[in-house]
Amino acid sequence: MKKINKVRMHEMVSEELKQYIRNNDLKKGDKLPSAETIMKILGVGRSSLREALRYLEASDVIEVVNGKGIYVKETAQYQMSAKINVEDERSALLQLMDVRRALEVLAVELAAQRSTDENIEEMRHYLLEIERTRGQASSIADMKFHQAIYKATGNPILQSIVESVWELFSVFWNAPFGHQEIFQDSFPFHQTLFAAIVEKNPMKAREEFNKIMDSMEQSIKNFQFHVT
């Protein structure tokens, strides 16, 4: 028997929307059906759709333009994710951890060297948002905090590489194993990582980022499935 994961309504809605983009071969700039149409087709409420759109927008999959509609923002990640099919979720997460370490260690070192006052304030904003919120809102703030670090590198090529695999990375912020709180123990290291970036200390930033990764990796390895 396979494990049974808890799936939240907004997660199911977001997956349906991504599947719609794939099935209809939508490209960047293409328009999705209206919110009212999506709610009617999927049989979901406005709050569930709003959370799904918020998550997809944070993942750079769509862009919601007030008064105009919902548009596809990026599709390259679908081509990448379609080629990767790892059945075991734990193995997939650990493999993705290796990729994140490779890319994000470089990112935090560059961010510590190159971040502007504007970059620092953006990171500070999302770090405070993580502290203030819980659940999906917190996970989105966490995701945006890491995206702000990549932005602070000032390296558009590195940002482009990350964007091409961001759909794969987003699994870390979308309830791995069906549990949103699995990586809560890593939050204190986000604070010390931010402090190292503010201090312009690349070596310290690297150390604190690796503490985040070590904590997350341990959480993945230790997680126990409970089927009821």
Automatic annotation (TrEMBL):
Keyword vocabulary terms for this entry: DNA-binding, Transcription, Transcription regulation
A GO MF term: DNA-binding transcription factor activity
Listed Pfam families: FCD (PF07729), GntR (PF00392)
Superkingdom to which the source organism belongs: Bacteria
Occurrences of domain HTH gntR-type (ranges): 7-75
CDD domains: WHTH_GntR (cd07377)
PANTHER family membership: TRANSCRIPTIONAL REGULATOR, GNTR FAMILY, UXU OPERON TRANSCRIPTIONAL REGULATOR
Protein name as it appears in the record: GntR family transcriptional regulator
